TrEMBL record:
<feature type="domain" description="EamA">
    <location>
        <begin position="143"/>
        <end position="282"/>
    </location>
</feature>
<feature type="transmembrane region" description="Helical">
    <location>
        <begin position="210"/>
        <end position="233"/>
    </location>
</feature>
<dbReference type="GO" id="GO:0016020">
    <property type="term" value="C:membrane"/>
</dbReference>
<feature type="transmembrane region" description="Helical">
    <location>
        <begin position="7"/>
        <end position="25"/>
    </location>
</feature>
<keyword id="KW-0472">Membrane</keyword>
<feature type="transmembrane region" description="Helical">
    <location>
        <begin position="171"/>
        <end position="190"/>
    </location>
</feature>
<feature type="transmembrane region" description="Helical">
    <location>
        <begin position="86"/>
        <end position="108"/>
    </location>
</feature>
<protein>
    <submittedName>
        <fullName>EamA family transporter</fullName>
    </submittedName>
</protein>
<feature type="transmembrane region" description="Helical">
    <location>
        <begin position="58"/>
        <end position="80"/>
    </location>
</feature>
<feature type="transmembrane region" description="Helical">
    <location>
        <begin position="117"/>
        <end position="133"/>
    </location>
</feature>
<dbReference type="Pfam" id="PF00892">
    <property type="entry name" value="EamA"/>
</dbReference>
<feature type="transmembrane region" description="Helical">
    <location>
        <begin position="31"/>
        <end position="51"/>
    </location>
</feature>
<dbReference type="InterPro" id="IPR050638">
    <property type="entry name" value="AA-Vitamin_Transporters"/>
</dbReference>
<feature type="domain" description="EamA">
    <location>
        <begin position="8"/>
        <end position="130"/>
    </location>
</feature>
<comment type="similarity">
    <text>Belongs to the EamA transporter family.</text>
</comment>
<dbReference type="InterPro" id="IPR000620">
    <property type="entry name" value="EamA_dom"/>
</dbReference>
<feature type="transmembrane region" description="Helical">
    <location>
        <begin position="139"/>
        <end position="159"/>
    </location>
</feature>
Length: 311
């Protein structure tokens, strides 16, 4: 991976880490299932009107929308509504990285180098350390729901990887067309029209402003910018190279939650977060002795020679 693309991956981690604060704010105003429908609906309407449909197979577009858009956020929002702290949610959701690597190996037959395996193991140990420390105060159900969200994200990653669009941003935007209608139906059944109507009716009050800004952030920064860059990286490199960068998200999310929401950040958690960073850096940097030629065009364009660790 080039230094430029590595920097973009870190930028995505920052955008997604701060996204948990935005989700926390939006759930203060809107019911979780309706919140998922709202965030994607606001993006789907201009996408249908203004953006050409991506040149990918329909099954990969739907798979990306169902995995990344529906499964991930249904379980994540439900978990946070059930009491999952924003910082801890940003940590547990990153189980999507090892889920993605395992699924890519099983379903796509992607190979890992020893360096990548070591980096991922180190990062997972760091995540496990933070999870162990936080598990003393976390309820089981919110953690399970967030883990299911991570699994949904992993399946979305694979569909994203297999789609290989000529314009990754178009795929990211059209992914948002999949969730709104089914999620609105679920919201009406589970949360009811009265609760949804009340949340909309009070959206223009001063108390609702943080929630509205949270929705805007998740749409513009979390989805368009963050997911757009992520899609570009996933089309250029194997899933096992890109996915570990998502482990940086909890470092940002937990730090931001501690500062903004006052969530306690123990020194042990900071130490384990440093372990996560070390593992990601080790797994994403290439060995100078073992470089490979670029992938074929079908795997993504403009990958320079030696940009990928041998896989």
């Amino acid at each position: 991976m080039t230094n430029r693309d590595r920097s973009l991956a870190v930028l995505v981690a920052i955008c997604w880490g701060l996204n948990f604060l935005a989700i926390h704010a939006s759930l203060e105003q809107y019911p979780p299932m309706f919140c998922v429908a709202l965030r994607f609906g606001l993006l789907a309407i201009p996408t249908i009107l203004l953006v050409p449909r991506p040149d990918v197979r329909l099954r990969w577009l739907i798979g990306y929308g169902v995995g990344f858009g529906i499964a991930q956020f249904v379980f994540l929002y439900a978990g946070m509504e059930a009491g999952m702290p924003a910082g801890l949610a940003s940590l547990v959701l990153q189980a999507s990285a090892p889920f993605t690597v395992v699924l890519a190996g099983v379903l796509l037959r992607e190979r890992l180098t020893g360096r990548q395996v070591l980096g991922i193991v180190i990062a997972i140990l760091g995540l496990a350390g933070v999870a162990w420390h936080r598990s003393q105060t976390a309820a089981l159900l919110p953690v399970v729901l967030t883990l299911l969200g991570a699994l949904g994200w992993a399946f979305g990653n694979l569909a994203n990887r297999q789609a290989r669009p000529s314009n990754p941003l178009h795929l990211t935007l059209w992914m948002s067309v999949v969730p709104p209608i089914p999620m609105l139906a679920v919201a009406l059944l589970v949360e009811g029209p009265d609760r949804i109507g009340e949340s909309l009716a009070t959206s223009f009050t001063a108390e609702a402003l943080p929630a509205v800004l949270g929705i805007v952030y998740t749409v513009v920064i979390g989805t368009v910018l963050g997911s757009g860059l992520w899609t570009i990286l996933m089309t250029r490199y194997p899933s096992s190279t890109v996915a570990p960068f998502s482990m940086l998200v909890p470092v940002v999310g937990m730090s931001a939650s501690a500062i903004v929401l006052g969530e306690h950040l123990h020194p042990l958690e900071l130490a384990f977060g440093a372990v996560v960073i070390a593992g990601v850096l080790l797994g994403s940097t290439q060995s100078r002795r073992r470089l490979t030629p670029p992938l074929p065009a079908a795997y993504g364009a403009d990958v320079p020679t030696g940009a990928l660790a041998k896989g």
